User: Fold this.
Amino acid sequence: MSPQPEQTLWVERLDVTVGAHRRAAVRDVSFTVGRGEAVGLVGESGSGKTLTCRSVLGLLPPGVEIAGGRVRLGSGADEVDLTTARRRTWDKVRGVRLGAVFQDPASYLNPSLTVGHQLAEVLRTQRGLARGPAHARSVELFTEVGLRDPDRVFHQYPHELSGGMLQRVLIALAVSLEPELLIADEATTALDVVVQAEILQLLSRLRRTHDLSLLLVTHDLAVVADTCDRVLVMYGGEIVESGPTEQVLRDPRHPYTRALLAVASIGDWSRRTLEVIPGSPPEAGEELPGCRFAPRCRDAVADCTAEPVWLTTWPDENRSARCLRAEDLESVGGPS
Amino acid sequence: MTTAPLLSVTDLTVTYAPPRRSGSLGTGAALAHVDLDVLPGEILGVVGETGSGKTTLARATVGLVRPAGGRIDFEGADLGALKGRELRTFLRSGQVQLAFQDPLRALDPDLTVGELVGEPLAVAGVPRAERNQRVSESLGLVGLDADSFRDRYPRQLSGGQRQRVSLARAIVTRPRLLFCDEPVSALDVSNRNLVLRLLDRLRHDLGLAVVIIAHDLSSLAGVADRVAVFYRGRLVEQGPIGEVLQKPSHPYTALLTASAPSVQQENRLRPDQVRTPQADASWDATACVFASLCRFAHEACTQQPALRPVPDQPYRTAACHVADEWRRDLNPTHQKGTR
Assistant:
């Protein structure tokens, strides 16, 4: 492999199982997020994208376990292995070195405390700031995330703010302790398009000003196209394709990515057809002999279901795809 | 347009509770002076942000809220003039139906699919034998096998199936007009287009007019014939969907299309080309609803403009004083990039 820039997050061969029968929901997922890099993790519900990101945050629901693999944060002396971390380590990592924002900001705030109180409290307990400086820094952070009239917002309760404003408050909380990595799990999904565009722009700006790495989990390829350097496409618990966003979207090498591009809302107003992907995605834990997309793939051949399909990598292009036919489909130009 | 509209909304105003104290947002007018037609057999997309009045339009039409002013004519009859028994008879006939946004919450968890779909018929007084047969027919139309789904409960269905049950319930009364409130926003991309295709098929099979309420433009682009754009209770632009999305006349529509995330990075308008960085609070209540965010606002915009035909574009109307002019004022370095 070519020399890597400094990595913020390493996920190596992560396996996550669900339930008493330990059904595999995430299989052999490996990726890295470089310092200051924005990586998009794209997939439909059930693809394993949320479990992957929850594994990184150590927030797996009961009954869901990491069955194998490693997750490491930081490099050199600052490196921590999150897969073996105990409570005490997590307290120093989660919310401090790892920030996160989710789809429903209102449920992550205390409804009976003002939003300013909640941000200042974090600064006072974690940074040891006194009341005055904590207030000043909070207002500064609220200004930075684009809240209008931050002095007033400081004294408002969550129910007094709109969804977009709450998401900005959550982002201010997430970046308040200068984390290395910010995870946004469907953070803009519930917002109106205009607000979504503003929040995505804000995330990109914070990434530059705070030298922040960004892991953006979404079901929407177009969101990734606007925001991320690199994209990972997940299907049925596996990464099926990865690479620089522009190249992957221009010339996808996995039929699932191609199918997603054909059906997704990608901002093409002149498109008047509604493509569908036949069939439905595999259930978590469903064992399929070969490629997990093969039953729905129009380019599948007998070999596809004969044995497990491994990731093919193109190191010089920084790309990979989990498809036996990636190269021969490309040589014929691939289906449109 | 020569066809008589199926639904004709004229100067419709709907008001919820007035603001109780100064400083609170207040709800004010949820819809203000809206004129809109729905033609038989067409699919009309209604877009707008939260609170723009799109759901209120549907609720007023099906009789769930009483308008403060204006008329709603359905097949030539003024719905507002219906009272008591007449109104009840009309509502129970199920000629206008509304499929709610969240099917899991809109479907009674204690009823089976068969009971849920048959309920509107029971209300209309259809005898049981005919009811069963129409429930099967309706489930068949939305692509669910009646025998295997009839006895299931909503919790035993996937999101896409629930949405289909919700639609089956709406079409069982053989409506002429169907409102769908955000039918696909909770669905994955694979299911999304299946449901949209289904709506398109139902319109052909049943000669149904469909109004799809959405906040996502691209899910409408493939299915709707026309689109109506709402902003803060006002209809700001309407017209054939391809034309409106590709060359918006109203700056708010332009902001919507520019904000929608897109895989295509070239030839795009950027949001900051049409909006100001901060809302300008100095515009008063009589001003154009979009003036506070509009880059092209000027003196004339202190009065809310009426919906007017867009020059050289038949079938299109926009409520903007600079509808045909603002493009000229775009920053020239970006001019090439706009479509």
Remarks:
- The two ends of chain B are 27 Å apart (CA to CA).
